[in-house]
């Protein structure tokens, strides 16, 4: 690693240590050279199939786990909202692309609805209309000079696969592999960047431990670990399929995605606790892929084993990879895709139910009461955490090529979204410092989100779009927010406008 890189880290540590609750400007931040984006930096916007498409039961699409959850448990979703129509992008995608083009975005990250491609869940029946829809979208993007980044799976798997256990069944690894082959074969000539699975940790904790997201299973302490185990294998199977069957023909890349908060020690006393939080939450899926030795982080294996034993389990609740899988998963990424929104301060202690991944860590996460709020109670505005976590990722995992694949903030819906502009401006500044001062290899940035969309359990209440969508209007009219115009300027100028 370069000298600038480690120097950057020491500066950062100082900076973080002395700024835990201030929002004052550092000199470093507003220097002209730190406001300009590197040449060829990719500006993009992101969405996900279930959150925008609608058309949930037409054109041959099968039922997804999210269709099932919102229809059977309206009580679990704000206002009983559903993604049945969402932003109607299945029909209005050309408008979405026109907006991207107008604003100057060079790339669009979208996801594919697995049951739209495979309505039975299996590769025995490929839905031609589903295949065609994504060709149309991709062609429309490319005709407008916008590069697609394709996420294979953003939380909506075929319900029929869930009926057979979903991410808890290790056959899912091969079902996902079959699906991935179809996607690569079909779109590989047009799409050069693939992300396999959006936010493994969120899927497994919310879907299989806390049960607040589809499929709504409450299997805390075991479910989330079994789920991640199969998600990691599935990711690697997809990666290896691309590598062996498609790479030489299509010359694209397949990345792995991680959702990260920054876990900053509340003070120096808690450095070890913050390191544990990093290993548990981020190392959990990153160490198996990017470390030299592969597998789960040693500290994590030990802690979960100890707790399991103390709780009377016969063996660790953390499943074990054999040598074959350790080697198979290790190295399975051409780039690192990072979703980042917010931070936590870490102290020692415990939290979460027993048993759970949360509790196993033996740390406590706190929210600094000085941090600015958003419309989502989990999301506080902590720009300095962005630099902190980017440096930590680079340092721990050999500074891989990175794309920020989500970053953004919610409000309750306004066209005059000055708070969103503030968020983007301050987070982007921290990202540029990570690039220039710390040498973190960041190639592009996708904001979340292009459109106000179905925000999972929060329904349509919490809005993340730079484009307002009128959910009262059957035509789902789109209106540019002030932040959209701000982005248009930033992209055109290639630099952050500070006022
Ligand atoms: C991303 O998740 C998703 O990829 C995207 O689809 C979503 O729209 C976007 O962020 C905004 O939320 O309520 O305390 O239990 C971000 C990571 C993981 C953050 C689950 C919220 C629930 C926290 N999310 N988490 S809590």
TrEMBL record:
Short name of one Pfam family: Glyco_hydro_1
Q: Gene3D superfamilies given for it?
A: Glycosidases
Catalytic center at which residues?
406
User: InterPro entries, alphabetically?
Assistant: GH, GH_1_N_CS, Glyco_hydro_1, Glyco_hydro_1_AS
Known EC number = 3.2.1.21
Alphabetical list of SUPFAM superfamilies matching this protein? (Trans)glycosidases (SSF51445)
Signal sequence segment: 1-24
Biological processes annotated in GO? carbohydrate metabolic process
Question: Which Gene Ontology molecular-function terms are recorded?
Answer: beta-glucosidase activity
The source's domain of life comes to Eukaryota
Name the keywords, alphabetized.
Glycoprotein, Glycosidase, Hydrolase, Signal
The record's similarity note reads: Belongs to the glycosyl hydrolase 1 family.
Q: How does it assemble?
A: Homodimer.
Q: What is this protein called?
A: beta-glucosidase
UniProt organism field: Tetragonisca angustula
